[in-house]
């Protein structure tokens, strides 16, 4: 930090010293420019003004000039320290504001991807970089994988082993680094893009590294310790938010897989054979997209589609597994799987709002369905969607007693029954969705 | 902030001015104590030393005394500002360190209760209080409920409506408050404990209040804006961590309820009747506690106990639901539910590590069980635990063909088979556990 002799003049320090002092004196900066005093006087002594071993000016005068120089140095040092402290306080304020802002933005974000994108965009606002990427360690294979990036031209999936390249090394060491000249770093791996400088910081949860964040610049950049500090502030918050999101995601994934596998097992009374439940769910969601369902409605639809036949658990083997045609009594019992579905799900609070989707997926738009004979929009929209998705999958799958219909024949059959068996809006959305396959 | 004339003396300011100046002068503080100069001299003038409209001393001297006083005031003000900035920087440093520390501690804590207890203990370290409590808004009934507290004598469950009491008002307004005298606040509700002063801050996620944190002191306290600031720093982090933990908890709860309800439905081929699965899980966990299982092992045990009979989905009705005794062929088929269990679960990655618990819960310690005839510790510990829990619940429940045994008779039966059918260590832990019921 430089001493500011001009600032002391503005504060009137030299003039006050002159008032106190009996003799004239001259203040000059190190280049000789006069800041105070009369250059025409004859001065017999001359003393340097010093601060932290560096000279920043001169005091010329008579026998009191030495004392004057010490007084000026004392004053200048005090002002200088004040300025330094002011800058430090400001930097801490900025860091705090940044930290609060990030904490608030990341609060309760529930998707790792979402958190990563937010973090990258914040980094990009604060630190100059051409490319930013966030990599996480895949828990299954131990590889570092890019989960979000900014400024890449192609969507190449970059994967590194731990210890490989700069990011792979940072993931091992757990210490953030600035590499201002990548050519001089043997760990640097040449890629398709030019990278002259980079910064890399680990994402850590306590002592465990879960990933890294990389910043790079094509042209040489001079990243500073201050930049690295900001990046580290961010990674602290980001790591916690991403880890939370990832744990939540894993649990949700496990939940859905479990429920759909169990549901299909129940449906078939055989270990998982794969397919029907998953396909009905996919068809249902495709229809839901074209109907513009909200996210909560899509969630409800997804779960109801997975569990639509859960009530078959209550139907006895001799009916459920019968290979020939069911007689009327048997058919009436078979139809009861819709109400058995309600009986199973009513004990699970989490599923209470999908009961209509499960119970009513055999209702018809014209009111001639079961179990309640609801018509039109009396039937929950998710049940009207599942009705189409379920029938379509049944028609296009092989059964013991008949071969699968072609998709085209199934489309025609569904179109024919639009407005009688099916909600015309749902059929329309279904046809739009299948047109994209 | 007070000006510090003693500090200027230590820095040699007065001595330097004296060297520069041709005339003697005297520096006194406002009480008249001499800080610099000779009191015996004759001084003709006397000027006050002022800072921010307050007098803090005197300069006595001759015709230059006025200039000296201005020089001293300039110097003193510069030093004073420096000190203020230093304190501000320090405060910001503390806030940052505190924030980083809290972020790290809260990272990936997955239970709301755990987060709340951590937050309360941090508050207690930093701010003087007799009682600290953390309340969350129950999403179902909209009431504020205490989920963790410190310093309460009785475990009374305090619940407030929104808008009720101080906490209920803060939850509505979303603004933190200091109430240094509760007697003068009409919102204050008298409780069983004396409360003279309190601070209350909302826990917020973006614009949504999810709870409040309360601090109180029995004796009058003078909580400051700085205390409130610290509390607010903490609530920002705490709210995010608690909300994440709560979402995770809700999902996990839904998962477990769903899986156990579906599992029991499958077991009985009837909608949920409640009981067997839940009891086997509870008995198993009680045994696990006495065996000192680790948390991950407890988790594995819990899920395996819930799903131990999932394979019954593959056993046909004529065998599963038969009321009389099974013949040998039928019994052999019934036994296959253990391997069917493996077949169902192997499709669910999340459950892969509980397969041994499900598949082997009918193995015997002497190797005469099924399906593989494993003996001793060849059988997974969780299967050896479930074996005891499952038999005990079967023996003590009514069955169509026999009445339930008394608990005592069941204990005796299990003890008798310790070392042959059951692992003696497990039986020992079981008997310790039941002794506590």
Keywords:
homodimer; 437 residues; alpha+beta; Beta-Lactamase; Hypothetical protein af1432; 6-stranded antiparallel β-sheet; 4-stranded antiparallel β-sheet
CATH level 4 superfamily of the largest domain in chain A: Hypothetical protein af1432
Content of β-strand of chain A? 5-15%
Order of helices and strands of chain A: HHEEEEHHEEEHEEEHHHHHHHHHH
The tally of helices of chain A reads 15
Largest interface: A-B, 77 and 78 residues
CATH class of the largest domain in chain A: Mainly Alpha
Outline the biggest β-sheet of chain A: 6 strands, antiparallel
Provide the residue-averaged pLDDT of chain A: 88
User: In what order do the strands lie side by side in the largest sheet of chain A?
Assistant: 7-6-5-10-9-8
Q: What share of residues of chain A is helical?
A: 40-55%
Oligomer: homodimer
Structural class, from secondary structure content of chain A?
A: alpha+beta
Radius of gyration of chain A: 37 Å
Number of domains of chain A: 3
Spans of chain A of at least 5 consecutive residues whose pLDDT stays below 50 are none
């Amino acid at each position: 930090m430089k001493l500011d002799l001009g600032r002391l003049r503005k504060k009137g320090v030299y003039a006050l010293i002159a008032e106190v002092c009996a003799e004239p004196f001259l203040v000059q900066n190190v280049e000789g420019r006069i800041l105070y005093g009369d250059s025409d006087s004859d001065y017999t002594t001359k003393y340097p003004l010093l601060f932290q071993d560096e000279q920043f000016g001169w005091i010329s005068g008579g026998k009191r000039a030495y004392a004057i120089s010490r007084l000026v140095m004392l004053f200048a040092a005090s002002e200088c320290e004040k300025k330094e402290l002011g800058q430090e306080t400001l930097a801490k304020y900025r860091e705090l504001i940044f930290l609060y802002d990030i904490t608030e933005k990341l609060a309760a974000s529930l998707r790792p991807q979402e958190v990563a994108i937010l973090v990258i965009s914040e980094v990009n606002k604060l630190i100059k970089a051409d490319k930013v990427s966030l990599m996480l360690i895949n828990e299954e294979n131990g590889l570092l994988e890019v989960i979000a990036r900014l400024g890449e031209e192609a969507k190449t999936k970059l994967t590194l082993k731990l210890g490989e390249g700069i990011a792979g090394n940072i993931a091992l060491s757990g210490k953030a680094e600035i590499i201002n000249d990548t050519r001089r770093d043997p760990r640097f791996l040449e890629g398709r893009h030019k990278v002259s400088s980079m910064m890399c910081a680990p994402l850590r949860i306590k002592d465990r590294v879960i990933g890294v964040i990389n910043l790079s610049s094509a042209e040489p950049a001079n990243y500073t310790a201050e930049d690295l500090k900001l990046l580290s502030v961010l990674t602290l918050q980001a790591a916690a938010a991403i880890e939370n999101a990832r744990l939540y995601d894993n649990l949700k994934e496990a939940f859905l897989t479990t429920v759909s596998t169990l549901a299909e097992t129940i449906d078939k009374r055989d270990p998982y054979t794969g397919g029907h439940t998953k396909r009905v769910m996919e068809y249902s969601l495709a229809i839901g997209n074209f109907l513009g369902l909200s996210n909560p409605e899509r969630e409800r639809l997804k779960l109801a589609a997975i569990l639509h036949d859960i009530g078959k658990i209550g139907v006895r083997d001799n009916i459920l597994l019968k290979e020939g045609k069911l007689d009327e009594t048997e058919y009436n019992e078979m139809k009861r799987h819709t109400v058995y579905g309600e009986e199973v799900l009513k004990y699970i609070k989490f599923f209470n709002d999908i009961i209509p989707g499960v119970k009513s997926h055999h209702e018809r738009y014209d009111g001639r369905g079961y179990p309640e004979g609801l018509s039109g929009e009396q039937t929950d929209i998710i049940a009207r969607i599942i009705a189409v998705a379920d029938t379509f999958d049944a028609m296009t799958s092989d059964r013991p007693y008949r071969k699968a219909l072609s998709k085209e024949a199934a489309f025609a059959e569904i179109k024919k029954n639009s407005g009688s068996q099916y909600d015309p809006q749902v059929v329309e959305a279904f046809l739009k969705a299948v047109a994209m396959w």
